[in-house]
Amino acid sequence: MNSPVGEMLVCTGRLLHVARVLTCRAQMKRYLSSASGSSNDDLANAMGKRATWENFYKTQSEQGTKQFDWFVGYEEVVDLVSPYLHKPGKSHRSHLVALDLGCGLSNVALKMCLSSEEPMRIVCADIVMTALETMRQQYQSTRGAVRNSESQLLFTMADASQLPFRDRCFDVVLDKGTTDVVIRSSGGSDLAKTVVQESLRVLRCGGHLLQFSDEDPDIRLTLLNDVAIRDRATVTFKDISTPHGMEYFMYVVQKGSERTD
Ligand SMILES: C[S@@+](CC[C@H](N)C(=O)[O-])C[C@H]1O[C@@H](n2cnc3c(N)ncnc32)[C@H](O)[C@@H]1O
What we know:
The chain is of the alpha/beta class. The chain is built from nine helices and seven strands; from the N terminus they run H-H-H-H-E-H-E-H-E-E-H-H-E-H-E-E. S-adenosylmethionine binds at residues 53, 69-70, 102-104, 106, 126-128, 131, 159-161, 176-178, 181-182.
């Protein structure tokens, strides 16, 4: 799209995206302010509480909101995530298996499942049932548009610090903003470590944990490297900040080979 009209459309698209992200952030901040009082500490503490999210999704459901993406949505993450969406070469499985940890009302798993040529099974997990119910309804109403009829979304209520899945059953774990809120709960640093440990436990060797976060690498890399060492995992990150001053990072943890001890 090299014509002036094409460039104008791309530019308008970008502006609309920035406006949408800012609206989402403002909406969430307003909601958290009213739920918790007004200081920044209160805001941070509120985000770490399950009740905050239960009330948030209840309000969204009453208002008929079907989608709410933290940081960035499918269009912004698809190219970043795609390189990690493959099953191991020698796998007998016909499909890739992914986990969207703390899925909320994000459109990422839904759109990934609908648009993938390769068959994909994605488990959407959250601690709040209302969010999962809204997601399930969305999936049911769009299921007809799935590109590969073997692809499937599944929904389950789960606590990220105690995942109800067996070891090594996922190829990819996606965590967009979930560890960020766990860190803000009481005992947050230890709990966040447990969440990363659980994510690596359920990943197959060679699989990837993809975290999208606004936490600075100085802090997040310490947490990830502390846990990664046990699983011989490697940690890298990418600055995916927008040119409009919103700082985000994508952290990639690749699980290493089996431990022998
Ligand atoms: C910041 S939102 C991100 C939602 C979604 N991933 C997105 O990108 O829009 C954090 C999500 O984590 C969920 N959550 C918080 N604590 C959790 C826990 N211990 N286990 C599972 N999900 C949790 C919340 O209900 C919420 O949906």
